[in-house]
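To whoever is on call:

I kicked off a structure prediction for a single chain this morning and the downstream step that reads the tokens threw a length-mismatch warning. I double-checked the sequence; it's 226 residues and nothing unusual in it as far as I can see. Pasting both halves so you can look.
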Amino acid sequence: MTIRVLLADDQALLRATFRILIDSCADLEVVAEASDGAEAVELTRAHHPDIVLMDIRMPGTDGLTATAQLCADPDLSATRVLILTTFETEDYVAQALRAGASGFLGKDVTADTLLAGLRTVASGEALLSPGATRSLITRFLLAPAPDSHLAPPERLADLTVREREVMALAAEGRSNTEIAEDLTLSPLTVRTHIHRAMTKLNARDRAQLVVIAYQTGLVRAAPPTV
């Protein structure tokens, strides 16, 4: 199955470079290009790509605003957003995750890492670059945006005990294989629990499941180190 990608970046040369790289892969295809956030939203609604590769700083509507609009659109529930930006700051990571992004990479990544990232996000997994450290992400997620509220713990009521266990370990950054080893389960069983939790919580992907885990208090962030 071909993964359909929409490119959103205000630099035409970068878009051209990404297009050549992505179209060189048999399982990836660029279906459209946007030079700003508003155009990205318009073209995503027209083409329904699997992934939008989104820059943050663009003229007019920025990438974070566009990401929030795309992720809030029920008609685009199958489209995921992978943020790719030069400005890999903790605040941007937190805003991107709150907006609904499934992944976050710096523009200094290698070509292989970018291609692997697209495939990872397309499969429904969360993707965070090494520069976006776990402790910083979790601390920022604990502080809700000014216009939002923490999700109530009651939201987890429909989850089984095992689904909560698996969800908590996933929120701590464990892979399915690591969770399977910790709980003496098979990786396939872990994946099943993850998907059931996502379905019950109406989470579009693993990244959103992690956000819910912290916002409901299922997982607590480690205190900042000095």
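Update from on-call: the warning came from a stale cache, not from the record. Cleared it. Sanity check on the structure: The chain has ten helices and six strands.
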